[in-house]
Write a structure and sequence with these properties.
heterodimer, A: alpha+beta, 3-stranded antiparallel sheet, globular, disordered N terminus
């Protein structure tokens, strides 16, 4: 349930201790802001809701990931006023980020398909 | 990638903003998390606690974000620098020692670099100096190059296409200048009108020569002042332009002042410039051979500027083709060829290149010794800090980070020491200029531009940094491999020596070698200056030149007789004599045709010759071994006589009947009336650098009817420098118009000859002192550390019955073993080092062994003293305390 990040940067899903491959969090973040810019809290909530409460991002992983993505130039940040009139840092995809999202989604799908096929054969 | 760089830059420079933003962002998230819980019905306090728990450690998150930001490297470097400063303050003794020793060795290296640059590479302070070339006439032996005549210059100037301009200059013209009652001989330059425009120099005041003013011989009496001359003699006043002054008796008008940055094309700064058409006034030695513009009057040098796209070889080729007819049939000693070189550095002397090479090598060796010394000390310090490193590693620091921080500290020490060393070198260079390069061996002022260039300073600091990398490599590696507990010197005795001990022995060896060579050089220089078969200490010298004022031989000789009589009567003067050609003690001429009657042409030998006045040998205290000195008997009316040196006498008359025999020189027969001791001033490479040949013939000054000038040697009872003004006043009383110049003492002249040897002695002496100091520090540090590490072992020894004195002897023994090993190695190095400097060694090699032994003994004593304190501390260890010591 929790995507925690102990030293060593392994992403682990809590309840069934499902191990997620490296970079999954990045992919989820990119997807979360694909439609419109979001701030950190909204991204975390969105991932949690849309995954049906299976995946919950811990802040200790989320913010470093956001900063890392910003450094790579896939997302860019700007400060704006949020719905409850507070100042918040909004992230949105850059063009490079959009390309990266497409590539990584394709890669994920092909990986999961391949694994699924292997698991389905007797 | 650009986004990455911009991001990192922003994170680095707008750090506080970025940190605030991070704070705000995390705060925002936390508040929303709390609100969510509250909205779900949880009490606020509980919601806050829950949210905080889920959030995790805020600082950790922030740290992770910072890591993700990816600007760790510059930040950590800044951190390392700050930490390094703190460490330096914590160990002040070590830090100061390290910085001081690095500074002292970098200072000497920088001084060597500066000397090298100025002597061999510094360009002229003119416009586009790379295009300026010196054009010289070459001759066969004995002198490889020579000046040329004005007519020859014009031939080249008019014919050349590869040079955009060719100027003539005579840059060592003795000009007796008289302004408003003050009269003095200064160094001047006779230059063609295109000299200043060719070099691209603009006047500081007024103007330079017009082409028109350099057309007709002796017509336009115009002069340009040197900047220094203008400041001293005219107080820097603009009225100087248009003023008149007398030069060698002729009145000139000042038309301008040269800029401060230019002092001529030779190390002798030009105080005054007159045009080549006034060459007859500037150079008085051609009056007997047809005047200044006759083909026999060769006194000019040439400087040109390369035409665009032309090279030195182009010019050489073209000018060789333009040579005057007469050069193609030149005899020995006359101009025959052309040589073109760029103006690089101050001199073209071969021995200067050698000198500079040796000094640079000494500087590098010193830096290495310093580095080796610091390796030992750093290793010891690293071991002492092993606790600190262990804690840092345990707290999670990467090993590479710890090593990097250690290296940063060493680099900081190196850079600080390097900068201090460069600053210190400017002081050394000033001292060097004052002691060695301010006047030459005849008393003429010299000027060398020894200013520091950014390139030199940069190279010096880079050398310090390179040395730092080398000398912190071993201790750094030790930390990297967590070997810090196994300090080399903590091993007990009776084993092979560690790297540290070998390094110390090597330092001691180098120290011994430097001390030995320095003492040899110093004693050699001292010996020459003091005099071996002559005594220099109470002799004053001066030069009188009636020729500059156009005196006839008769008038000049009357003058000479008068001044000798007057000077001899001055209180304190013991004897007065003179030489006619060249300087006192040297061979004024070289005569290749000395023979006896009846010899064939190929039996002839060469000898040095000079014209000397009566009482010459008495004045210089050269022993007369047989016969007599010249005196008033020997005039132009009496038969020609000669005095020979003992080596020549032995060679020509092995049976010993020199006196009364006849010697033939240049087809003149002379009767030998005396034999004197050889004036031995030649170095061990005999023949290459002899200041005075062993074969010498002296002829009487007064038997030459054409004498005009002379150089006087005056022996006084007290300090010759103090008596010089009184002597000059006496001469002025006889005739105030005659210029007196080159007023120095004989020791100063000899010191000038020995300049390079003395400079090397001083430099190597400094290096020797520093090396001895470093060896002492290194030995002391190493032993002190070893003692503190081995306290337990010592306690055990004493508990088992060893007395205090045996412990003392144990530690002393270790120290002395290193010192003695160094001494032995040093003797070998000293022998090799002596070979490199034989050029400047004038005493016999027999006593060398004594110097080596003394050097070895000195370093052994220093080693003993350095080992004593740690040894005594070891002996003072209380066994019980030591055994409890952890």
């Amino acid at each position: 349930m929790l995507l925690s990040k102990p030293k060593g940067r392994r992403l682990v899903s809590d309840s069934a201790r499902i191990e997620l491959p490296q970079g999954t969090l990045d992919l989820l973040i990119l997807k979360a802001i694909a439609l419109e810019p979001q701030h950190g809290w909204a991204i975390s909530e969105r991932i949690h809701q849309i995954s049906g409460d299976v995946l919950k991002v811990q802040q200790g992983s989320l913010y470093p990931a956001l900063h890392r993505l910003e450094r790579r130039g896939w997302i860019k940040a700007s400060w704006d006023v949020s719905d409850n009139n507070r100042r918040a840092k909004y992230y949105e995809l850059t063009r490079a980020g959009r390309t990266a999202l497409g590539e990584q989604t394709a890669a994920w799908r092909s990986l999961t398909n391949a694994v699924g096929l292997l698991l389905d054969t007797p | 990638m650009l986004a990455d760089a911009l991001y990192r830059l922003r994170a680095l420079f707008r750090r506080s903003t970025v940190e605030h933003e991070l704070d705000d962002e995390l705060q925002f998230h936390l508040e929303h998390a709390i609100e969510k819980q509250v909205a779900a019905g949880m009490p606020r306090q509980e919601a806050v606690r829950r949210a905080r728990l889920e959030f995790g450690g805020v600082e950790q998150v922030k740290e992770d974000c910072r890591d993700a930001r990816g600007i760790s490297l510059p930040e950590t470097i800044l951190q390392d620098l700050r930490y390094g400063l703190r460490t330096m303050r914590r160990t002040p003794v070590f830090s100061v020692t390290a910085i001081v020793t690095i500074a002292l060795s970098i200072a000497s290296l920088t001084t060597a670099f500066t000397l090298r640059y100025t002597m061999l590479f510094r360009p002229l302070p003119v416009e586009r100096p790379g295009e300026i070339v010196a054009v010289r006439a070459t001759r066969g032996r004995p002198t490889p190059e020579g000046p040329l005549s004005y007519a020859d210059y014009v031939t080249f100037r008019n014919g050349t296409k590869t040079l955009s301009g060719l100027a003539a200059h005579y840059s060592t013209a003795p000009l007796y200048v008289s302004v408003n009652g003050t009269a003095k001989e200064v160094n001047g330059a006779v230059v063609s009108a295109n000299y200043f425009p060719l070099l691209g120099i603009s006047p500081a005041l007024g103007r330079f020569f017009h082409d028109d003013e350099d057309r007709v011989p002796d017509r336009d009496r115009v002069a340009v002042l040197g900047h220094d001359f203008w400041r001293t003699w005219f107080r820097g006043s603009p009225d100087a332009v248009g003023a008149t002054l007398k030069v060698n008796g002729v009145t000139f008008t000042v038309i301008g002042v040269a800029p401060a940055t230019f002092v001529g094309l030779r190390p002798y700064p030009a105080q005054l410039y007159i045009p080549t058409m006034m060459l007859g006034t500037g150079y008085r030695w051609c009056t007997e051979i047809g005047g200044a513009f006759s083909p026999q009057c060769t006194i000019l040098e040439m400087a040109g500027r390369l035409a665009p796209g032309r090279s030195v070889s182009d010019v050489t080729g073209e000018l060789t083709m333009l040579r005057p007819e007469a050069w193609l049939h030149a005899k020995v000693g006359e101009n025959s060829g052309i040589e073109v070189t760029r103006f690089l550095g101050a001199t073209r002397n071969e021995s200067v290149a050698q000198l500079v090479g040796i000094l640079t090598a000494v500087g590098i060796v010193l830096l290495l010794v310093c580095g080796a010394n610091l390796t030992g000390l750093l290793t010891a310090q690293g071991s002492a800090r092993s606790h600190e490193f262990a804690i840092r590693l345990a707290l999670g620091a990467a090993r590479s980070r710890v090593v990097r921080q250690f290296l940063t500290e060493s680099l900081m020490l190196a850079v600080i020491g390097g900068v201090a060393g460069v600053a210190l070198s400017t002081g050394f260079v000033k001292a060097l200029t004052a002691f060695f390069y301010s006047i030459d061996d005849e008393g003429h002022p010299l000027y060398f531009d020894f200013s520091l260039t950014p390139a030199i300073a940069f190279t010096a600091i880079v050398s310090a940094v390179a040395a730092a990398c080398v000398f912190s490599a071993i201790p750094a590696r030790r930390i990297a491999r967590a070997d810090s507990n196994a300090h080399p010197d903590s091993r007990t005795t009776s084993g092979r020596w560690s790297v540290g001990r070998w390094l110390l022995a090597a330092q001691a060896a180098i120290a011994v070698a430097l001390v030995a060579v320095a003492s040899l050089l110093t004693s050699s220089a001292r010996g020459v200056v003091k005099g071996t078969t002559f005594e220099s200490s109470h002799v004053a010298l001066m030069r009188v030149r009636p020729r500059l004022m156009n005196y006839t031989p008769e008038r000049a000789q009357q003058f000479q007789h008068d001044i000798v009589r007057r000077l001899s009567a001055v209180p304190g003067v013991e004897s007065v004599s003179m030489v006619g050609v060249g300087a006192v003690l040297t061979a004024g001429r070289f005569v290749p045709t000395v023979e006896l009657r009846g010899w064939s042409r190929d039996q002839r030998i060469g000898a040095g010759q000079n014209e000397i006045g009566p009482r010459y040998f008495e004045t210089l205290r050269i022993p007369v071994l047989g016969g007599r000195e010249f005196d008033d008997r020997d005039t132009t009316q009496s038969p020609p006589v000669a005095i020979v040196s003992e080596s020549l006498a032995r060679r020509l008359w092995p049976n010993g009947d020199a006196i009364g025999s006849t010697i033939v020189m240049s087809d003149t027969s002379r009767q030998v009336v005396g034999i004197v001791a050889d004036v031995r001033i030649h170095n061990r490479d005999e023949g290459l650098f002899a200041l005075s040949p062993s074969y010498f013939v002296y002829v009487p000054f007064w038997q030459n009817p054409m004498q005009i000038d002379s150089r006087l040697a005056i022996r006084v009872a007290g300090d010759p420098a103090a008596v010089l003004p009184a002597l000059m006043r006496e001469i002025n009383r006889v005739d105030a118009d005659v210029p007196i110049a080159e007023t120095i003492t004989l020791p100063m002249q000899l010191a000038g000859w020995m300049r390079e040897g003395r400079l090397t002695a001083a430099f190597v002496g400094y290096a020797a002192g520093l090396a001895v100091l470093l060896t002492a520090i290194g030995l002391y540090g190493s032993l002190a550390f070893a003692v503190s590490r081995r306290t337990k072992e010592i306690g055990i020894r004493m508990a088992l019955g060893a007395g205090r004195s045996s412990v003392l002897r144990l530690i002393l023994g270790e120290g002395m073993a290193v010192a003695l090993a160094g001494a032995v190695g040093g003797l070998v190095l000293a022998a090799a080092g002596t070979r490199l400097v034989t050029h400047w060694l004038f005493q016999s090699a027999a006593a060398d062994v004594l110097f080596y032994a003394a050097a070895a003994f000195l370093v052994a004593v220093v080693g003993f003293v350095a080992s004593l304190m740690p040894a005594r501390r070891a002996a003072a260890v209380e066994p019980l305390v030591a055994l409890r010591h952890e």
